[in-house]
Design brief:
This protein is of the alpha+beta class. The chain has helices at residues 3-16, 59-64, 70-75, and strands at 20-24, 28-34, 39-45, 80-83, 88-91, 107-108, 113-119, 122-127, 132-137, 143-145, 150-155. A hairpin with a 3-residue loop joins strand 1 (20-24) and strand 2. GO terms for molecular function: acetyl-CoA carboxylase activity.
Length: 157
């Protein structure tokens, strides 16, 4: 069963009015729960080898994310946006008892460490690829971030 078939199944269940549907086949288990405002779907592939279950989010969740993006885009026309190169947890300092890497108004140079993103228990230092002044920090400390999510606005002048 591919993603397209699963998405069609989710749409069908949502239109049917059923509150919960469970489907089990040889190597796949699908549970679709629908509520008044929310759909949730869990897809578990169970091959012979031991693997972590894979989850497929319903298409409804993707439509909500772009609503936030236009606000920073309008004010960032003259600024350079530094984006997250990976998915993980964003940290503004190397440890709780250490000072912040950067603050708003601080001048940075190419190669300066701006933050740390923890992914799978590995702490990845994110370095600046531009020189300039930090105008805005777009993510709160200890927040989850997505790939290519804007983290900082930098004034290159």
């Amino acid at each position: 069963m591919d993603i397209k078939e699963i998405q069609n199944l989710i749409k069908f269940v949502a239109k049917s009015g059923a509150s919960e549907v469970k489907l089990e086949m040889d190597d796949i288990k699908i549970t679709i729960k629908t509520g008044s405002d929310q759909e949730s779907t869990a897809v578990h592939y169970a091959p012979i080898q031991a693997q972590a279950p894979q989850l497929v989010a319903p298409p409804v969740a993707e439509a909500k994310a772009p609503a936030e993006a236009p606000a920073p885009a309008a004010e960032s026309s003259k600024y350079i946006t530094i984006k997250s190169p990976i998915i993980g947890t964003f940290y503004r300092k190397p440890s709780p008892d250490k000072p912040l890497f950067v603050e708003v108004g601080q001048t940075i140079a190419e190669g300066d460490v701006l933050c740390i993103i923890e992914a799978m228990k590995l702490f990845n230092e994110i370095e600046s690829e531009v020189s300039g002044k930090i105008v805005k920090i777009l993510v709160d400390d200890s927040s989850p971030v997505e790939f290519d999510q804007p983290l900082f606005l930098v004034d290159p002048s």
